[in-house]
Amino acid sequence: MSIDESTAARVAKLARIRVADDALPALAGEFNTILGFIEQLNEVDVEGVEPMTGVTPMRLKQRQDVVTDGNQQDKVLANAPDAREGFFAVPKVME
Fold first, then answer.
1. Alpha-carbon gap, residue 22 to 19, rounded angstroms
2. pTM (2 decimals)?
3. Under a CB-based contact definition with an 8 Å cutoff, are residues 82 and 89 in contact?
4. Distance between alpha carbon 48 and the CA centroid of its chain, in Å?
5. How many domains does the chain have?
6. Percentage of residues in the chain having pLDDT higher than 90
7. Using CA atoms, how far apart are residues 89 and 76, in angstroms rounded to an integer?
8. 34 lies in a domain?
């Protein structure tokens, strides 16, 4: 498949990219280079190859899913302007 200047101009217009008329031949050449690379990739036999997310197999460290209070009540309440009995104290909104 080959991209000519009119097709390159149409792609640029669809992508909302302003391209000067004198730059269209270079843009068409770049598109052709990209399409050539894609054609090379299509020639590779990938039958039976498992998909992968990285080149080295890694397992993420996992912790137990246990609900805790965080044991940081004092640290959290240290920045509160008003704390009473281990809670944030806020002004009454409704009577």
1. 8
2. 0.51
3. yes
4. 28
5. 1
6. 53
7. 13
8. yes
